[in-house]
Input
Amino acid sequence: MTARANPVGILRAGRLPPSLVMGGIVVALLVALALLGPWIAPYPFDQFNVRARFSPPDAQHWFGTDEFGRDVLSRVLVGARYSLLIGFGASALSLVLGVPLGLVAAYRRDVGGELIMRAVDVMISVPPILLGLLILAVTPPDIWKTILAVGIVYVPIMTRITRSVALGLLAEDFVQAARARGESAFYILFGEILPNAWPPIIVETSLRVTFAILLGSALSFLGLGAQPPMSEWGLMIAQSRPFIEQAPWIGLAPGIVLCILLVSVNLVGEGLREALDPRFAERGSP
Amino acid sequence: MTAAPILAVEGLSVSYATARGRLAALDDVSFAIPRGRSLGLVGESGSGKSTVILALLGLLGAGARTGARSAVFMGGDLLGKEAPNRRGDRIGVVFQDPGAVLNPALTVGLQVAEPLMVHRGLARGAALERAAALLGEVGIHRPAEMARAYPHQLSGGMKQRALIAMALSCEPDLLLLDEPTTALDVTVEAQILDLLQAERERRGLSILFVSHNLGIVERLCDELAVLYAGRIVEQGPTAAIFRQPRHPYTKGLLGALPRLDRDRALRLVPIPGGLPDLTRPPPGCNFEARCPFAVAGCAAPQALQPQPDTVRVRCHRSRELEGKAWPVESASPAQARRAAGEPILEADRLSKTFPLGGILSRLRFEGGLPRLGPPAAVRAVDAVSIAVRSGQVLGVVGESGSGKSTLARLVLRLLEADGGALSYRKRPVARVPDRGFRRHAQIVFQNPESSLNPRKRVSQILARPLALFGVAGGRDLAARIDRLLELVRLPASYRDRYPHQLSGGEKQRVSIARAMASEPEVLVCDEAVSALDVSVQAAILNLFADLRDELGVAYLFISHDISVIAHLADRVAVMYGGALVEEGALTEVLRPPYHPYTEALLSAVPMVGSRERAAQRVRLPAEAAAPGAGCRFAPRCPRRIGTICDAVPPPAHEPAPGHRIACHLPLDQLAALAPALGGMESSHPPG
Output
């Protein structure tokens, strides 16, 4: 009875997997902080305070200050927007490009499919930083270019995963039945295959989010991403390295936030996978 | 009943821990095997028959709890501490899938020799020598050579022979056989059964034979135990049970079997419903919910009660029901079968060759220069011509690798043919067929697990073809889906279910409903009942027969099981090695003159009540050289004339209009072949 009332089917409130709810709340909180960052930060993110250099966390500076006396909490808050944008943006880009490519490569067992996979092999064989450099070096840095560069670096991985999952599914009889109805390749790939291919893709994407943030910061470190004094988590971690013994909190604060993001995004991925599985509805009910 | 039994099990119970509580897989199972005798354990999937074997071997996982009042094997406790050694030494086991049991990285000889080294302490060299001798004993040619081969170099039947050699290596007293022939072709199955019978007589082996196939059990077993949902419901001498089944479940099982020796107008017995929930086993008869004879008293606990003929039955009504057959609803009184009309789907010399290996595998070096060799290829379908006529069922029978599934895909243009023509209602079908063809030619597959998209509800699955072909839309759609569910005898409430909420038989019904949604004229059924239990298979076969009679659908019905084909088909095409060897009306194909391969196929079919047939059974050699340009069956043919068979394609005899046999033997010799079915008279009343 609920099927017609709710086209999404299993995504019913109260039936959601707990991991999805918990992870979703934390991710939403982080996103909210990132959006409000510049306004709720206690100090301007780039305000020097030479007298308060390397001050450990206290009532005034909750996360302490860095080597220029800048408030670490403010920098984490302001940098969140940039980091999350790279993380989610690049993952979304690799998803949007990589998944259809993988589906097509699996479906076309001819020269076309072969071409896609060999191009993917070439891209995988180039070190990611170098690939990012190729895209960024020729023009002045900008955040959307970093997203583009990082996103493209992860396209081959998405393509490969999607293709291997789709290859298995294409051999299933329900696909043969669709072909016997004369269904188009588009319908078979997106109507029959993709709904079954989501689980591994979702898990992979949730991992990619944090990798993308770190790769983005590596590019920043090389001078190709966010530029000082601009704040960004990966950049903060990278720049805290010389002071790791003297003032570990400088790198610790963004590191912990990154960890929280990683865990909660993975929880969301895990939960999403369960929520999309028709079998979950049964397991969830008493 | 002479000496003490070799194996006596009293009150064996096994339960598994599951999320919903403990599942009682076996409940108070008792049996005894006298020395040198054989016991058959039959039941459908989920009955617990494999659990018996695993429990005897102590191979159940950590979640299983095994208990028995006593389990005595050759005077010692089988479930105790020192049991493992006794088992390995004195008990041999053969499992179902020979491909999965042999380690692909070790030679066959070493694997056969291993038990000898472990249990007999033989040195490696001596053990390997003995292994080669054993391989010879189980009928493998060139045993020394084969002992050095790896499993992938052996055919399925040879692997099973090697496994039997392994099971026999320590000269066991008891042989446990868990569906040893289920994964094999019927002619190979016949050889393996012959081998088991011979070894049994030669070595005085005792056998516990687990199978779902009643025909095989009858051939090999003295005693029979019928297992249902973890309980033995009927137990006694095989012959007595087959002559007079007493438990309703046994009656149902025997009636569900499509039989070559029975009038095919009879409907098969479908046993409705499914296994009871074994986490809450019913205290009374566990078959009550599915039993047509159930009365109020059935809810009380039932005991195995002795009957005449030393049979014991777990049914309190067995005396009253004596001789009563399972009630079968008569076929729907639809219009009389239409006479076969004009051909709808015609294939003219369709061929398909699959290339083997990529371009690199063709690369050869001759005199230091790279050369491209000729492409290796396997001819899966070789110039096959068939015609499916309206309202008619054309059965295609053949063993694995005969090309029948490829043929199914060729006639639907799911695979592109290399040669030949396909026409639908006298018009050629294009390489990419039009909507009309797609709509009117549909397919049902073998595996119900793979046939339905697990992420879609039944209503979505059925709505797609309806909308795609414009059969129904908008408001009609829901009503139409309900009608389709009704057509395949499923309740309308199933529309909201996902495939995992359906049983195997129900999934197959949804597949059929999906195929029927576009109102096809031809339905291709590719082994559509092969993955189902006998009782479910019977229901689906009845459904196919009804659809044929009510809607006049024509079928191309493909199966490896000639009993199934004989039950449903009007015409039969016999395939071997990608080619048609015989085609004709069902009654013509089932009796001489027929092709030597048809003869072998028919005589190998396990049939209930046909023990006496064993003597005259045609036996095919296991190994076969690659066929030449001539008859594909020539290398295995027991009636091969000479080199003409290998070199020259056989001519087609036509003993009757529409009956073709491709064979070099003259027609009068083919006509003189002995009837493989023993004359077709039914000497056994249907259960």
About this structure: Residues 332-336, 679-687 of chain B have pLDDT under 50 and may be disordered. Residues 180 and 274 of chain B are 26 Å apart (CA to CA).
